[in-house]
Amino acid sequence: MRDVLTRLGPLGFGAAQFGNLNVETDDQTCHAAVEAAWGAGIRYFDTAPHYGLGLSERRLGAALADRPRDQFVVSTKAGRLLEPNPDYRRGDLDDQGFRVPATSRRRWDFSRDGILRSLESSLDRLGLDRVDIVYLHDPDEHWESASTTGVSALIELRDEGVIGAVGVGMNQSAIPARFVAECDIDVVMLAGRYTLLDQSALDDLLPLALDRDVAIVAAGVYNSGILSSVHVSDAAAYDYGQAPAELIEHARLIAKHAEAIDVTLPEAAVRFPFTHPAVRTVVLGMRTARHVASGAQRMHASVPDALWTDLANSSLIDPRCASTAASPFQGADS
């Protein structure tokens, strides 16, 4: 495992919300969130050009500017190249969920030139001379180019010492498993596919990652919100849409079992990914200092392994989860 991956810590800071995801955020709020994260011991920060058409990278870089560079880890992503939008008209907003002017547009590009241009632009926005991890971002429909020119460009940069580790970041497990099997990658950011409600990555990615010593960074652990509240709402979201009634009931049953041993549903959701030894860290989306405090509290809550056994015995999670839960952090020191 690459040295940089040993420095992630159990909790990482997801900065998508710094790109005005769904609602606008100001610079001061972002700076305060990073300040709170630093005080909570968080040293891993993740961003991407996609998040707010570069706004997340700019804000994160500004907030980290006065921190010693060797004391934090930054990851960004490549594959969506930002270019000027020739169709922009004053007042037009981005159409992919970020409340920012649509002055730029994204273009899929996993060519060597596209990867190099993307990283150069990211470094400029971040105000850094290097990033530690670069993920190929959502190459679901671009396997041919991403698995050849895309990953080869990043491996070249890693071998030259320009970046520390190469990865892929996706909302599914099947294609990341192919990357692990066929490409020389170090890490996978897996969103939403190893959670209290979805353990599908057990069938392909997780055992392969463990065998190949590829680290898993678990993201999307709340499955778009259904697992983020103590009480599950009838209007809860799951995977970017309205959660079906049966899934809401499933989440409520998990919450009931957790409450019986004084654990909240969000606490269980944050700690659950560590039931698998391939998981190195959990990244939570954070917008404010309050989000940071909440995430840190959930990470460090007392969640006994007996909960996973109980949930498995009740057919609420895959029984394989309980069988691997020897330690809540699986060696990731808090």
UniProtKB/TrEMBL annotation:
User: What CDD domains does the record tag this protein with?
Assistant: AKR_FDH
Looking up SUPFAM superfamilies in the UniProt record yields: NAD(P)-linked oxidoreductase
| NADP-dependent oxidoreductase domain segment(s) | 10-299
Give the highest taxon in the source lineage.
Answer: Bacteria
* Pfam families attached to this UniProt entry: Aldo_ket_red
User: What InterPro entries is this protein classified in?
Assistant: AKR, FDH-like, NAD(P)_OxRdtase_dom_sf, NADP_OxRdtase_dom
Instruction: Quote the protein name from its UniProt record.
Output: Aldo/keto reductase
Q: What is the lineage of its organism?
A: Bacteria, Bacillati, Actinomycetota, Actinomycetes, Micrococcales
